[in-house]
Amino acid sequence: MPYIGNTIRAADDYRLIDDISSSFNGSTTSFALQVAGSAPVPFPKSPQQVLISVNGVIQEPDPSGSSGFNLVGTNIVFSSAPTGGHAFFGIIYATADYLNAGGNFPAGSLGAPSITFIGDENTGLYRKGGGSIGFVADATEIANTDSNGLTISSGNLILPDSIIHNGDSDTKIRFPSANQISFETNGSEGVRIDGGGNLLIGTAAARTFGGGVYAHLQLEGTTQQGSQFTVTRNSNDSFAPNISLVKTRGTSDGAVTTVQDNDSLGTIQFRGADGTDVFAVAASITGEVDGSPSDGTDMPGALVFGTTADGAASPTERLRIGAAGQIGIAGTNYGTSGQVLTSGGSGGAISWSTVTGTTINNNADNRIITGSGTANTLNGESSITYDGTKILNISSSAGGFFQGTDTDGGVGLVEMGAGNVALQADTGNAIADSKIHFFVDGSEKMVIQDDGDFYFNNNIGFKGSSNAIRTNIVSTQILAGTNSSITTNRDTAGKITIRAGDADSTSIDDDNTAIKIYPAANRSASAGTKYGGISWNHLDPVVYTSTQYTGSSCWLGASIHDTVGQERDNFEIVMNDQTGNGTHPNKSGFRLSPEGYHSFPNTPVFIGEGSNYTQNTDNSTYSDVIPHFDLTIRGISRSGAELTVPEDGIYHFSITYLFHPNNESQYMTSRIVVNGSQAGDIIQGGGNATGHSHRCFTKLLSLSASDVVKFQFKTATGEVHGGQVNWAFYKVA
Q: Cα(392)–Cα(411) distance, rounded to whole angstroms?
């Protein structure tokens, strides 16, 4: 019969079941199966794996339990209770289905594995060492497992398709077809090596770029990140990453055979699809050997730039930078000494040109040279001179700019340097009350005085391409801005004074309007649309961080009251209750309508009305006054008679009511209750049976958010009928 192991089993491999005969009493049928005081591990799977003898009679193993014995759980269960005093004997076979049920296997060896097969005793498994199992075929170890995993010791690991990452089933190495290896992550193929040894990234099929030759490295994609590669070097030094294109004259890998003059060392080609293939090259950059290389570090080179003309099939060399830094046009045409490059215009190439001799007439030191109507002839201008430092002089006889002599401090100086351009008058302060005058069409338009004031002779206009902002300054008036510095003279910095308008007019018109604001363009808008505002911010984003303080804290402006086209708008003040950078005013604090009404749009307010309240005689308990309906609620919620305060503040509570007592001895008591307690004093009122009485109840209350407020009343004697009750509750501070 087949067996496991090359060694006869030892006697102790057959487990002796503990004696249970002391528990036989003629009625008990179930007894614990134990070996050395505990249930054996692993436990036999079926009664056929156990030999049981009672009173010298071998018992029949019966899984159905109808005769002999069966194993149930970890117990021996007899079909008939053993008689008291009968003997017991039992063993667990060493050949139980569980390999370790009957005992331990020997370690075995490479030539004689512990677990073998009939007729092939040198193929199987053996214990190679602690925690390691060896797999043997014909006395040769093929693989072994240990704490490091599975190791292939000899031969090959043959897979039908994939190597899958444990717990990550969509990440794998696949063999999708013959001579193909692919690498997948997140269920998508990222890299493939095909039968031609081509490494493909982003594509599963290599393609040729001319001549039937396939590049061994191909990157292809449909997005920017899928169609680019990046080389990054991270090192604390001045060195950069490299992309090297290397050429030798050798014929095998690893060759170092010297290249020769004019050899191309590498080319970057720019190709485009033409509807048929991607063979056509539009432009190229090529590195060439430009001289005779020698052993060591001598490798003279040139860089060649080529473009393909319209209708041509391949690039033509357009520009070359030679080994000595010389520039070649359309090949090695480096020109001759003294030649200059001449443009061929938008439709032609540049070329080398020779500059012929030029004559300068009327030349002298420091004169500016200008052109003339005669070929190859220039003129020296005696009225325009440059002193070699920073002074440009134009004589007065030329009309226009004048540079004075040193004795008057230098009136009319144009200075350029250190990134600034300065137009100065009287730089040495030699003449009192110096001015700069601007003339257009023969008349003075603007004057800059020595105190910094601007005088304008007419309107100032700032006009864009489609929209305009116009600032009208009436003739002879002053627009004064004293200092734009933020670090000095803060009392006057950035202030503007505008003097304009008709001081004698009592009506509003354009004559007494100093600033007029229009929308940026004609547009259709509905009521409430805001425009023409002024915003404030406590910090300047230009002075501080440009990405901060980009919003505003408050806004003053207009909003459309009716419809566009009617000059009826509201005047509004809007505040900002937000803290984020870049936020703008969002809470309307005050609104003045064309009718002269003013409102506080965000003030919490409640207005209610009720009627027909009746309280019977001698009722000492206050009753809640619940409005039948709310006329206006904004920010204050109501539940029955209770009004909930939305925010901390001072609130005004006002009630006007009409009541009708049956006789003059009857009176009515009213109060305001906050959070269940009376707030302040009460008010009482009496009357007679012939008429109604009116009462007005008003209070100012300091309340907190979520406080609950309500109005109550009661009568002292008799029956009082309440008429209409109106009340208002709103925040005032």
A: 12
Burial class of 44 by CB neighbour count within 10 A (0 to 12, 13 to 18, 19+) = buried
**For 540-557, how does the pLDDT look when each residue is reduced to its tens digit (9 = 90+)?**
665 666 666 678 888 888
The amino acid at 381: E
Using alpha carbons, select from 656, 662, 653 the residue that is nearest to residue 615: 662
Residues near 493 by beta carbon (within 8 Å), at least 6 away in sequence: 482, 483, 484, 485, 486
Q: What is the C-alpha radius of gyration for the chain, rounded to an integer number of angstroms?
A: 53
Structure token pair of residue 423: 């137009």
Q: What does DSSP say about strands 530-536 and 468-471: parallel, antiparallel, or unpaired?
A: unpaired
Burial group, residue 710, by CB count within 10 angstroms (0-12, 13-18, 19+) = buried
SS3 226: helix
Answer for the pair 644, 637: CB distance below 8 angstroms, yes or no.
Answer: yes
Angle at 401 between CA 397 and CA 406, to 5 degrees: 90
Tell me how far apart the alpha carbons of residues 52 and 616 are, in angstroms, rounded to a whole number: 100
- 407-452 tens-digit pLDDT: 444 455 555 545 556 676 766 666 666 778 788 887 877 888 776 6
How would residue 482 be classed by pLDDT, with cut points 50, 70 and 90? Answer: very low
Residue type, 31: F
- Nearest CA among 614, 602, 606 for reference residue 666: 614
The reported pTM is 0.38
Dihedral over alpha carbons 539, 543, 548, 550 (to 10 degrees): 70
pLDDT at residue 661, rounded to an integer: 64
Instruction: Output DSSP code: residue 138.
Output: T
Please name each of the domains of the chain with its CATH number.
Answer: 11-92 (no CATH), 115-152 (no CATH), 162-227 (no CATH), 264-353 (no CATH), 517-601 (no CATH), 605-731 (2.60.120.40)
Dig out the tokens for 686 from the structure: 């009496």
Q: Decide if 115 contacts 22 (C-beta within 8 A).
A: no
| CB-based contacts of 470-475 (< 8 A; 24+ apart in sequence) | 472/500, 472/516, 473/498, 473/500, 474/499, 474/500, 474/501
pLDDT digits (tens, 9 = 90+) for 600-653: 666 777 777 766 555 554 566 787 877 776 665 667 788 888 888 888 888 888
Separation between Cα atoms, residue 585 and residue 575, nearest integer Å: 5
* DSSP-assigned letter for residue 308: P
Q: How confident is the model at residue 108 (pLDDT cuts 50, 70, 90)?
A: confident
pLDDT of residue 489: 45
